[in-house]
Amino acid sequence: MYSSTFVFAKKQFDDEFHRLDRIIADVAKEIPGYLGEEAWENPSTGLISNVYYWESLEALQALVQHPAHLKAKANQARWLDGYQVIISEVIRTYGDGVLDLPVR
């Protein structure tokens, strides 16, 4: 299993940003191998983090190569004040089973 974490500082979002964001989220959910996602905001830094979980790198690549994702990436400077993407292989998950998260 893999996770792709997109950490960013936002500028001003416009209608095109929200449209592309919805399309990308919908596309991700339709890709075989998509497991789920989480979003976090750090109030002290203002940074936002979106974490997607994937069964394989091929599933992740399907999203990365989608035209809506490529368009958003090409225009990111309009909406973001910096970003970083972290791709990780998930070695293990564990917990008490109480939380309903996309991965277990």
TrEMBL record:
Protein name in the entry: Antibiotic biosynthesis monooxygenase
InterPro entries (UniProt xref): Dimeric_a/b-barrel
Write out the entry's keywords from A to Z: Monooxygenase, Oxidoreductase
Gene Ontology molecular function, alphabetical: monooxygenase activity
